[in-house]
Amino acid sequence: MVAGVITDLTDWLDRVSSHQWFLLVILVIAFLDSIIPIVPSETCVIIGGVAASLGTQNIFAVITAAAVGAFLGDNTAYLIGFRASDWFRRRAERKPKFAVKLAWAQSQIMQRGGLLLITARFIPGGRTALTLSCGITRQKRSWFVRWVALATVIWATYAALLGSIGGEAFEDDHAKAFTLAFSLAIAANIIIEVTRHLWKKRRAAARATVSAG
Question: Is the predicted pLDDT of residue 171 greater than 60, yes or no?
Answer without folding.
Answer: no
